[in-house]
Amino acid sequence: MSREPDAGLPGDAELPGDYALPGTLSDALRTELIAFRRDLHMHPELGNQEFRTTAALKARLEAAGLHPQVLSTGTGLVCDVGAGAGVRGAGPEAGGRRTGGRPVLAIRADIDALPIPDTKTGVPYRSTVPDRAHACGHDVHTTAVLGAGLVLAELDRQGLLPQPVRLIFQPAEEVLPGGAADAIESGVLDGVGRIIAVHCDPRVDAGRIGLRVGPITSACDRLEITLDGPGGHTARPHLTTDLVTAAAKIVTEVPALLSRRVDTRSGLALTWGRIESGHACNVIPQHAELAGTVRCLDLPAWREAPDLVHAAVDEIATLHRAKSQINYIRGVPPVVNDPVVTELLRDAHAARRGALAIEDTEQSLGGEDFSWYLEHVPGAMARLGVRAPGSGARLDLHRGDFDVDEAAITVGVELFTAAALLDAAHGR
User: Fold this and answer.
1) For strand 165-170 and strand 104-110, is the pairing parallel, antiparallel, or unpaired?
2) Greatest CA span in the chain, whole angstroms?
3) Cβ neighbours for 48, distance < 8 A, ≥ 6 positions apart
4) Are residues 142 and 26 in the same domain?
């Protein structure tokens, strides 16, 4: 899905201090980026398997004279742009970054796809890989960060980029607890003082962004429970453990218990996605399995969630004489936007598109591993509008028919480049 990008972008918006903001996209680069996004969309790769995507990004960045490094996990990249940028973490004597001692701004993209089929029709860039699709917009995130890197590299050649910027192309965002943890472990935040990102929002028109100070996503964990009992005849449930009833009680009563054991304002919610037990109508089974997700709006409540869930499950299972085994898989904390970095994104988008192209956004119940970066450095994530203006479309994320207005790519590039320039100009 595409429309002609806006022609009259304000390339020299005047900001406080008479600082001119260069770095708009040429028509040739816009066309190239749309083609790059479509190529990624046609060849989606799952988390930690993004070898083709990594190779394509590496080749394009190297063609621009940059020096990207593949992460230690084997996929994903980190690349410094500007002001003598060299080997990440190396000092000037080793050809490394020269930042004058000031931490750099990082721009992060996630590069993995989802294990679902692409159900779009009538588009030439539909996924060519069975049961794989970029149904969350990561191809757009990736292309926008690539485009920003190319624009910033050109500005650096012109002497217009006063401070280095780091590009992070992170694998495995969709794999709990997220590839961000591995990227951080490999050193992508060395020397970083602030970090920014976007996430596609199909409820927001292309050309606009949504911003929020504080939590913008929720925590998301995974819960797996197995129940066991001796089994028996459905004619005599009193002589055994009625395992199906025990499972049903856990499904209904554990969420209810949690709602009374934590402040309701924390938004702690357990929702089940799978329950399996038994094979015959007249046989009480010996084994049952349940799985679901635990989501939470509040960071302190998220830290308490595993103990609360364990206690509630054990209480109900014991009441019904079922042996329980709980596998609580830590996912991600909420993304909590820093007010200063959020204001940087607000100023950047206002400089390019005007203040009226910014809207407030609500906290989502979705999880995002960008939150792990914010455990180390301040940062912020913006919601990038991808809905064609006036379309009234109600496409959602994680659906096989998800698609975007490709003008959003230009908007993402503008946002990132403007943020990098403003960050350097105002000493954020």
Assistant:
1) parallel
2) 84
3) 73, 74, 75, 112, 171, 172, 175, 179
4) yes
Please indicate, yes or no, whether residues 203 and 296 belong to a single structural domain of this protein.
no
Report CA-CA distances (Å) from 316 to 80, 81, 278, 312, 325.
53, 56, 20, 6, 13
State the Cα–Cα distance between residues 292 and 225, nearest whole angstrom.
9
> Do residue 109 and residue 140 come from a single domain?
yes
Within 10 Å of residue 38's Cβ, how many Cβ atoms?
18
Structural domain including 403 reads 14-217+335-426
At 102 the pLDDT is 73
Are 86 and 139 contained in the same domain?
yes
What global pTM score does this model have? 0.86
Tokens of 213: 């100070």
The residue ranges of DSSP E strands in 137-236, in sequence order, are: 165-170, 192-205, 209-211, 214-215, 219-228, 232-233
The residues, any chain, with a CB within 8 Å of residue 256's CB and separated by 6 or more, are none
| Segments in the chain below pLDDT 70 | 1-21, 23, 83-101, 427-428
Verify that 375 and 416 share a domain, yes or no. Answer: yes
Contact 171, 109 (CB under 8 A): no
Q: Residue 391: what pLDDT?
A: 86
pLDDT of residue 98: 39
Domain count along the chain? 2
Closest CA to 151 of 34, 61, 258, 46: 61
Cα–Cα distance measured from residue 152 to residue 71, given in angstroms and rounded to the nearest whole number: 22
Q: Give the residue carrying structure tokens 């005047």.
A: 14
Q: Quick one: 293 and 339 in the same domain?
A: no
